[in-house]
Amino acid sequence: MTQTIHFVRHGEVHNPDKILYGLQPGWRLSDRGQQMAQIIGQWSKDLNLGAIHASPLQRAQETVAPIINQHNLSLTSDANLIEASNIFEGKKFELGSGALKHPKSWRYLWNPWRPSWGEPYEQLINRMLKGLFAARDAAAGKDAICVSHQLPIWILRSAIEGRRLIHDPRKRQCTLASVTSFKLDNDGMIESVSYSEPAKHLLPPK
């Protein structure tokens, strides 16, 4: 019996000052982010789900709410799906105008392969795989949804697809309210990965 575990990135966050919020509590969805969540809820209604899991952070919990409303399932909050830690949390982090322009920040940038400024990629992959397989087991043969965050989803996908983990964040294929789907084979192991953007029409212009 095959299954698919869909990893949904949360919707847009209200963040007019472009702060790197990371693991900080209290960051809610913007009005557009709420619309994205509703689109994801509609997208999910035809899925045969056996489990719905989400990161405990507010933006993920708000994104998963419309999915819960479409299915007769309870929500499981899973800390394995949480955002990666980052030394620059709480600071502006834009190329050319944020924390990176200050020399005192450069001491954290010595190892992009680990990376030296945040949660190690190896640890991130391990906990995201735990989250994936926990959703698989909870779904009992049906599909499952996990609502998580951009970096954890992208690094998990990169590891599965054999892509090197050092990367340009601007080139991650994991936009707001996107869906990265991991298809599992009859043995419950990852067979293939696909990607879609159900709320593409709501994405802010670049």
Structural account:
With 206 residues, the protein is an alpha/beta fold. It has a single domain, classed as Rossmann fold (3-Layer(aba) Sandwich). The protein is 28% helix and 17% strand. Strands 3-2-4-1-5-6 form a 6-stranded mixed beta sheet, with helices on both faces. α1 packs parallel to α2 and α3 packs across α4. The longest helix has 19 residues. The mean pLDDT is 91.
Task: Provide keyphrases for this structure.
single chain; 206 residues; alpha/beta; Rossmann fold; 6-stranded mixed sheet; 4 helices; 17% strand; globular
Topology, element by element:
Layout: E1 3-9, H1 31-44, E2 49-54, H2 58-70, E3 75-77, H3 121-139, E4 143-148, H4 150-161, E5 179-184, E6 190-196
Parallel strand pairs: 1-4, 2-3, 2-4
Antiparallel strand pairs: 1-5, 5-6
GO molecular function: phosphatase activity
Organism: Candidatus Nanopelagicus abundans
Pfam family, one: His_Phos_1
Summed up:
This is Histidine phosphatase superfamily protein. One of its GO terms (molecular function) is phosphatase activity. The chain contains 4 helices and 6 strands; from the N terminus they run βαβαβαβαββ.
List the uncertain runs. Answer: none
Average pLDDT metric: 91
Question: What would CATH call the architecture?
Answer: 3-Layer(aba) Sandwich
- What is the count of structural domains? 1
User: Which class of secondary structure composition applies to the elements?
Assistant: alpha/beta
SSE string, helix = H, strand = E? EHEHEHEHEE
- The total count of helices amounts to 4
- Cα-atom radius of gyration: 17 Å
Distance between the termini: 41 Å
The strand line-up of the biggest sheet is: 3-2-4-1-5-6
